[in-house]
Amino acid sequence: MFSRLPGAIIRAILVVLVVVMPALFLPPAADYNIQIIVLFAIFAAIFTLAEYCTGSPSVIEFREAPPFNRVRFLTLFAIVLCLSIIFRGYITPSAMTEYVQRGGSNIGAVVDFPFSPVRLMVLMLPESASPELVLRVRDGAGLSYMIAAIAIIWFVVLLRLRQWPRRDAPFNVWVNLPTFNSAGGDVVERLERDGRINVILGFLLPFLVPAVLKIFASFGAAVRLDDMHTLLWMVAAWAFLPASILMRGVALSRVAQMIRAQRHAAAERAAISGHYAG
């Protein structure tokens, strides 16, 4: 436990930084309660410490199989940071905010084509939305979606370069997949099935979420988009969660390939041993 403590503390500090980052960049809204953010940051820190200090798994997957969680965290960190800078530029412009805003505007204009996820996010807005809010959503969604797409490509490249998970290193399924039920049926088939489901779901979620929010709005349960904090976390979740799910699907498929290769190698060794024994 004590050997894991320094790394767990560093991870907890980084998680807290992501949680409080919008509050540091943006001014509080009229009904904004900083105590809620502090409470959520404390809970996130305690959860991270508990997960990474103990040897027994709980919820976090691939805890002992980097770089899965590192790539996901860096993706969320980059999305929240860029959105915080963009939204701060609407209040107190600076050279840095103008630079990030210009990049987000260019990316938003490129990916804002018919039936794209960014166009669906813009169409989700009510007809009474101001032009400033439309541009804010388009630029933030475009930049966040681009960061998520780059992170997915980066993750796949890292898996190829590192041959993750390495066949010459132990991979504990119980520690790295604590929520995966290995009982019943072939593990490889279930991993491949869950991997395909996660990849499909991660690809479709950016298209489905705006439609669901639009349906909720038609029933009078619209999200308060005039609050920058709410808008920031909504756009961040819309971009990050599908990317995280898609990465999980790719990782599960790689684990299935590793187990299949190990089985094949074990069968070949058994065949060779049986041949020499005979």
Question: Kindly, what is the distance between the CA atoms of the first and last residues, rounded to a whole number of angstroms?
Answer: 50 Å
Portion of residues in beta strands equals under 5%
Number of helices: 9
| Classification by helices and strands | mainly alpha
The chain-level mean pLDDT equals: 87
The portion of residues assigned to helices is: over 70%
Characterise this structure.
With about 280 residues, this protein is an all-alpha fold. It has 2 domains: about 1-55; about 65-275, no CATH class. Helix content is about 75%, strand content about 0%. The chain has 9 helices and no strands. It has helices at about 5-25, 35-55, 70-90, 95-110, 115-125, 130-160, 175, 185-220, 230-275.
Main traits of this protein?
single chain, 278 residues, mainly alpha, 2 domains, 74% helix, 0% strand, globular
Can you give me a brief rundown of this structure?
With 278 residues, the protein is mostly helical. The chain contains 9 helices and no strands.
How is this fold's topology laid out?
Elements: H1 5-25, H2 34-53, H3 68-89, H4 95-111, H5 117-124, H6 131-162, H7 173-176, H8 187-218, H9 228-277
Keywords: Membrane, Transmembrane, Transmembrane helix
Transmembrane segments: 7-26, 32-50, 71-91, 143-161, 199-219, 231-251
